[in-house]
Fold this protein.
Amino acid sequence: MSGKMKIATIVAGVAVVVVLTLVFPPFRTYQLATVGAYLCVTAGLTVLTGLNGQLSLGHGALMATGAYTLALSVNAGWPLTAAFAAALVVTTVIGGVVGLAAARLRGPYLAGLTLAVAVVVPAITSTFDGTFNSDQGLSVALEPPPGTVTVEQWQAWLAWGAALIVLVLLQLLIGGRFGRELKAVRDDETAARLAGVGVARTQVLAFVVSAACAGIGGALFAVLAQSVSPGAFPLSLSLFLVMAIVIGGLGSLAGAAWGAVLLVALPALAHTVTEGIDAQRLEGNLPLALFGVTLIVVMLAAPGGIAALRPFKRSPFKRSPFTKAGLRPLRKRSKA
Amino acid sequence: MPHQPPSDGLILHDISVRFGGLTALEGVSLRVPPGRTVGVIGPNGAGKTTLFNVVCGFVAPTSGQLTLDGRPLRPRPHQLKKRGIARTLQGVGLFPSLTVLENVLVGESDRDRAEATLERCGAASYRDEKPAALPYAIRKRVALARALVTDPRLLLLDEPAGGLGVQEIEELGELITGLSCSVLLVEHHMDLVMTVCDEILVLDFGKPVAHGTPDEIRTDEAVADAYLGAAA
């Protein structure tokens, strides 16, 4: 699919979602809005991890940074657009700082650094409780939506408008030279250097782009929840984000979209299941278990993720690790 | 815009490289004049690839100087292109997730030039394939195209004939002979080296043991000793 076709698909997809917000009940519309907010984050994360090969376990913290920046800006009387811009700038700067350190690290050391970010940010909110109000968090006082538009519709349009901008910009970015350089650095750093690619520069840029997307996603969450607290951005959120892009399909925006859907659908499914079997105590851990099981099943059936599935072309099990390893069904040998 | 031909070419003066107590290169001097092909040969571990790594900036020399066209060369790998230097790697070093054309387009976004270079290297018909789907010889051609697309004034070829058949090596020799840029060639395939090189430097345990034309190298006893071991 060409770049223009991909952008047309993104625009068409967002248009369909906007139409759905007109017919869905408020709760489903709110869920759609949440998918849009998650999509901003997963799209940025799949560029970083899928296309550039940098594993980040700290994107939940970057989301928190965006959310708190928006909350503080709105509460200071800034208009919403300026608050979004502030969230974007602050997370971009923090992403740049983390990216500079991350560009010098590889593998588990990089994961450790980003994990530290995920742990430190909630601790900061407790330390500076005069600003961040500790575990209670901050409320976000927003003006009511204009006219007859419901709050959920307005939130969904805001989230999917942001997702549209993020997806189109990312598609333009990864569809050209920068996208090739991201993949080249991931595939072979030495060969990339010899081809004239600044490896560290590319890695830092990837982190900055991804952090900016996480900041926008976090700011959207502040708008959706109309409050911000450290409990909304636990370490498990960062793990969910990584699992979501792997299950959806690493390195593709379609995979990021699938991941965003799963991030909303699996906890909702867990809630339904625990209610059905009257085991509410399980609800906290069941989404993680569901994600784990989904990850295993998808990796067996479609190592490239849901986005790589071609249901009408060939069976996904034909590309499972077992068949790739040569474990095929026994066949009768033909006589010579 | 093509690079102007160099006036002095690449000059390595008394280059030594030590890794702790190990001497990888010692007192290596070499000139690669404009438009000429210079081969570097020697047994495994002789320091050939280390020499390439010094020119490319992957390894800093412990002592000695490098100049390119009379200007000191303190290379950083990703800036080699700006100085008109390109290098192929010992393996093919292609990016598996990119197509052949995209591989050539990394670091050089002129699509027409990339396609013309692929055509010149005989890999144009594979432009939309991923490297893993291609025969090894074609991958080598793509790697060469990626190096040539920047129109370098100095091309470093690290064992370009490795893994190729006789016919493919002949074609590679013709391609190298037809290049207008300077070429520094590391290769084990002696027929290719003797055919395409104007001069040859022989290394053994990091030290230069011979330097001359292919005919001189063929009859040099020190070279025979280095490859076959000194007579008891």
